[in-house]
Design brief:
86 residues, mainly alpha, two-stranded parallel ribbon, flat
């Protein structure tokens, strides 16, 4: 149950901070931001009718988007919290 609440909270934060408008052209700095929110927007894509990558973008957006989406996904998969037991 806790994981479902966590996912819903992250999706809400993603909607507030990184909702992608399909009619807007995005540039390199948006690629960084959208790439950092890739995983959250990807999950939102499955449950709601939203996009996880801009449809109208520049080449720099695409480069930064993929760079930061890979970094954020690796961080989610391998980052986790480390609990040192003493």
């Amino acid at each position: 149950m806790r994981i479902i609440i966590t996912i819903l909270v992250y999706c809400f934060v993603g909607w507030l901070l990184c909702d992608i408008d399909p009619d807007k052209t995005y540039y390199w700095y948006s690629g960084i931001w959208h790439g950092m929110f890739f995983f959250i927007n990807w999950i939102r894509h499955f449950f709601w009718d939203c996009i996880y990558k801009a449809e109208d973008y520049t080449t720099a957006y695409n480069i930064f988007y993929w760079t930061f989406s890979i970094i954020s996904t690796v961080g989610i998969v391998f980052g986790g919290s480390s609990r040192d037991e003493y």
